[in-house]
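Progress note, project year one: complex with fe (ii) ion.
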Amino acid sequence: MTGTTGTSGTDRACERFRSVRSRTEALAAPLGPEDQVVQSMPDCSPTKWHRAHTTWFFEEFVLGPHAGAAPYDPAFRFLFNSYYEAVGPRQPRPRRGMITRPTVDEVAAYRRAVDEGVEALLDKGDPPPEVVDLVELGCHHEEQHQELLLMDAKHLLAQNPLRPAYAAPADAPEGAVAAGDAGAAPVDWVKHPGGIVEVGHGGEGFAYDNEGPRHETLLQPFSLADRLVTEGEWAAFVDDGGYHRPDLWLSDGWYAVQDGGWEAPLYWERADTGPSGWSVFTLGGLRPLSPSAPVRHISYYEADAFARWAGCRLPTEHEWEAVSPDRSAGAGAAWEWTGSAYLPYPGFRPAAGAVGEYNGKFMSGQHVLRGASCATPPGHSRPTYRNFFPPGARWAFSGLRLAS
Ligand SMILES: [Fe+2]
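Model obtained:
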């Protein structure tokens, strides 16, 4: 994909590069070598693989073409390429957990070597703007993997019968539960008059290619909830037989419910203690259901069924963008499913070459999520940001906001 950084000094680029790279290492630090190698399902990747793949990205797209650097290890091109057909063959995604060698320590050394190469390139006088732009793209790419690292670590730790915590509750991305939680305030509805609005990225600063071109679109009048749906509201949906009423579900969703034996969001467990009867696994370990906490780890199908049960619907991605909910009012806790299919904007053109495979080739069979989650690196998202997942995916920090 292509991004534009505008005018950024190389000092700033270098500082940003160092800060993103060290944040990944800090996120991996609570995970031991054993934690970092196991792959808990085909969609997840081991922590070690994330650390190596984000490094490969800089090597493949920055150091190789722009510093003439020989590969650190030619085999890493096969092991740590994710999905770039133009780069060549690669380890199949479902078998990333089989890469027990190189070891965690060897991957750490790989990271250090590539860090030195990129920093030397940025330090060398005036690097060409395309190099600065590619480093910026690599930093945004690595930030996406920082969230994936947490998603995947959570899924892995949830498979352990001891349900170990990644961090102390207060330090975990979901945060600690407030004592005496009585539920969230009633929803206020933000009314929008509809009409022709401009959507998509068109300004200064970095954006992914899938956020543009900026263009006009026609909205009908609508209302958008001022906060996310909560765990307490979701428990009411469960208690009302939400997972047992086919009339609430899309056909594919109903099949997913039967096939997966879904009775609640991912990471909810029946509990003998507590008034709700549910425990929720978080990166801070198991905790009682929190009535005011935004519900997370639901599929598009579940979000859609809940909205129907509530007499509402999901917003389209452009309704969401037209309102751009205030993050301080509870947004940024979970990615928000929209009713919009992930499709190219009018005039969309992916970048030439391998980086053009970043976003464009995934524009089929997926739905757009807007906002940001508790696991998204600060400052990574934007009002025009388009996250996307297949409709059955539940391991992302995904929730919903109602529209009508
Ligand atoms: Fe990647």
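DSSP finds nine helices and eleven strands in the chain.
Residues 13 and 306 are 44 Å apart (CA to CA).
No further modelling is planned for this target in the current period.
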